[in-house]
Structures are given as structure tokens and as C-alpha cells.
Amino acid sequence: MSKRLFVRSLQIGITAVCLGIVACSFYDREPARSDVKDTGDRKKAPDFSLKDAHGNIVHLSDYKGKVVLLDFWATWCGPCNIEIPWFTDFERKYKDRGFEVLGVSMDDDGWKAINPFVAEKKINYRIVLGDDMTSDMYGSVEALPTTFVIDREGRIASIHIGLSGKKEFEDAIEKLLDAPVGGRAPDGNAKRANES
Q: Can you name the residues that pair with 159 across neighbouring β-strands?
């Protein structure tokens, strides 16, 4: 190898390593927080009618009274693949407390792509096939993943565009699960008069 070629290869190698370090630093960085909105600032989540893998019609309104993590995703989306195991954990951990994950797949190939992916990833929550109309209802979802955390009253409490941190989701879920609903605690007991 000539000296000139060696120096050029070394420069390329050093540049690649530096770019890799910068990319990993950016990737590992704590994502910007997407706090849960105050109750008065929450907008009603648009209702939709989408089909699941069995052809059943699913409405968001079917989930009223539950905290819902509504995730717009696709099988080919790298960041979606990172978040999906977290959502599977959340479904298992919080289901008994009135929580559900609902995945809205935006895959162009439909169930042909979705079903094998769901089986491979052992997704334990319901998936529906999204469309442009549903995307438009939620502000023209352009980036995947885009995830909405919805309170028990069916209002959007937080929005996460792109890859977010697991703790960020978990904090929002727990805050909404612990919040009183209509003057009643999440377990159905009326709030005590001395509680604020």
C-alpha cells in the first residue's frame, strides 16, 4: 500500500470513528422531555374506526376510562423497533390498572407485513391498520414513531414525536394512572374532602 493511500485510509477511518462517536452520543442523549399537559390544556383525541388483524372494527372511544398509549408506527421503522419492547412491558405491567397500548401500523403492505412482525416481536397489545385519514385526524403524522398518551377522559395528555425515552413514557403513564377522574380516585373511591 502506498504511503498516500495509507494516509487517506487513515483519514477516512478516523473520520468514521469520530462520526460514530458523535452519532452514538446524540443517540444516547436524554431526549427532550414531553411533559404531561395540564388537564385544561388537553384536547380530545379524535375517534377513529380502524380494523384489527381479525377484521374487527376498533374505535378509540372503546377505550374510554383507560389510559391509552396510542402509537403510530411501521415495521420498517428503526426507532419504532426500539420502543415496541417497552410498550409490551407497559402493557403487561399496567394493564390491571386500566392501561392499554394501541398500535396504529402505517405499513403500506398491510397485514402481510404486520402479522409476521407482531408474531416475531411477541407484541401483546392490539394493532390496527392506519390510513391517511387517521393520520390527518392526528395532525398529519409524518414522523414515525409518533405516540400519544391519552388520559381516562379520552384527551391527549402528551405527544412524543420520534424516539423518546422509556422513562419519559413511564412517568406519563404513571401520572395519568394515579390522577383522579371526575372527582374519584383511579380505584373508584371518592376523593376525601381533605385531599387537594
A: 148
Class of residue 175 by CB neighbours under 10 A (exposed 0-12, middle 13-18, buried 19+): middle
My answer on whether 16 and 63 are in the same domain is no
58 shares its domain with 106:
yes
Question: What phi and psi values does residue 41 have, to the nearest 5 degrees?
Answer: -95, 0
In angstroms, the CA 25 to CA 47 distance is 39
Sole residue written with cell 470513528: 17
Say if residue 22 is in the same domain as residue 48.
no
Share of the chain above pLDDT 70, in %: 74
The answer, yes or no, to whether residue 174 has pLDDT greater than 90, is yes
Domain identity same for 115 and 80? yes
Instruction: Give the total number of structural domains in the chain.
Output: 2
- Stated as kind and residue range, the H or E segment containing 49 is strand 49-51
CA distance 114 to 94: 24
38-80 residue pLDDT tens? 877 899 999 999 999 999 999 999 999 999 999 999 999 999 9
| Short-list 28, 80, 71, CA closest to 173 | 71
Q: What pLDDT does 188 receive?
A: 47
Which residues have C-beta within 8 Å of that of residue 47, sequence separation ≥ 6?
A: 59, 60, 61
Structural domain including 52 reads 39-178
